[in-house]
């Protein structure tokens, strides 16, 4: 018998303690070798004045065990409270979120029998970087952060996941027809790394039509990899159309650490009533068992769960208030856990049994740095606050500060070019992006930009932000205006 593996457990809020107790009961009865360290997170910690929802001592436990089994939490209403999930993912470098979305037809109703899709979501970057600014009374900004290294890690993980789990295809979703630089980088990296896996079928979809295809014909997909925001939204959609968000577990994987959880919330209205379905957390724990090198226990638990579903032993959400014809007995949280334990050692007869093998879930090798390129400063975008709604007036004002080799090239408002040649129907806010570059092209010095900003200050022009413009091997590393 191998030694017990240390893990950190948090029972969370709402239904969290009930579904965690049920999950741990099943794991223990199945023979999982776990040394549990329990921590407190969530609402009570928030309300003690800790804006992160987790204490220092709890973080030390996570750093020590490197494995976190987490129940849902409640984030109090009102400002000042950080998302604990986002905090934990960034703190532990959990860059990959993996969400299997499987149909259990006919026992759990779905319009998509046979659906078996795994969504691999980048977990740290994109708009979830949380970099936001209220620049002016009329404009707030959220920065979409995509890095070469971040793209390579998540795309590599998706292909390695496919190989490890005998998947045949990896699909990439982006919106690079509009966000040509950020999502364009993600798509380019997908093509680069995909070329290293000739045995895997590869395809790319623009996310809007890809999402429509996923909702209508999920059987067309196998593994889907995508940036953070799209992955967050579409993994919930995929779980729901497979049968229920309440049945989906998820893994958050980093280079050294990992977190496992259900994808649903804490459902405080259902707390303390022995009603909640522990399946999402249990299936997250199954992923944890594979991760910590106990695949035989993962297989035992997962097959027993499938047999329980197949036998019609269902919690209220699956029973659908008596409307599910395959429900033979509606049970509570504890009774469902007991039913799974009673079926340990059994395999389902109609649903496909699972088979797990020990395999590393993390990627130890570092990805290479971005390709070398000649990088030159080519100008600056100066964002100003001005309440005037006439682009021609703004243009005249900004022409007055041009000079020292920097010319006013254009002005945009909300990403739309409004100067020169404004159109009367364009809606304007009070923030204007003014682009300064040499008309004949060529490199620009930082001192030229500083001189421009000094002239803006001298002219009582309120600058709220600047963005330097760079070229890479002579190609623009910035958008060209009007959303392009």
Walk me through this protein's architecture:
It is elongated, with a radius of gyration of 26 Å. It folds into 3 domains: 1-110 and 243-357, Isopropylmalate Dehydrogenase; 113-223, no CATH class; 375-476, Alpha-Beta Plaits, CATH 3.30.70. The strands form 4 sheets. A 10-stranded mixed β-sheet has the order 2-1-3-12-11-4-5-10-8-9, sandwiched between helices. The protein is 33% helix and 23% strand. Helix 7 (207-216) packs parallel to helix 8 (228-242). The protein has 484 residues and is an alpha/beta fold.
Keyphrases for this structure?
33% helix, 3 domains, 484 residues, Alpha-Beta Plaits, alpha/beta, 10-stranded mixed beta sheet, 6-stranded antiparallel beta sheet, Isopropylmalate Dehydrogenase
How are the SSEs placed, and which strands pair?
Layout: E1 5-10, H1 16-29, E2 34-39, H2 43-47, H3 56-65, E3 67-70, H4 84-92, E4 96-102, E5 116-122, E6 132-136, E7 139-142, H5 148-164, E8 169-174, H6 182-194, E9 201-206, H7 207-216, E10 223-226, H8 228-242, E11 249-253, E12 258-262, H9 279-291, H10 295-310, E13 313-314, H11 316-319, E14 329-330, H12 333-342, E15 375-385, H13 391-399, E16 407-413, E17 416-419, E18 431-437, H14 446-458, E19 462-472, E20 475-476
Helix pairs in contact: 1-9, 1-12, 5-6, 7-8, 9-10, 10-12
Uncertain segments are: none
How confident overall, as mean pLDDT? 94
> What is the subunit organization of this protein?
single chain
Based on Cα principal axes, name the global outline.
elongated
Rg value: 26 Å
Measured by DSSP, the beta-strand proportion falls in: 15-25%
The number of E-state strands comes to: 20
Q: Helix fraction? A: 25-40%
CATH class of the largest domain, named Alpha Beta
> How many domains in all?
3
CATH topology of the largest domain: Isopropylmalate Dehydrogenase
Alpha-carbon distance between the termini? 60 Å
Total of DSSP H or I helical runs spanning 4+ residues: 14
Strand order within the widest beta sheet: 2-1-3-12-11-4-5-10-8-9
CATH superfamily of the largest domain: Isopropylmalate Dehydrogenase
Describe the main β-sheet briefly: 10 strands, mixed
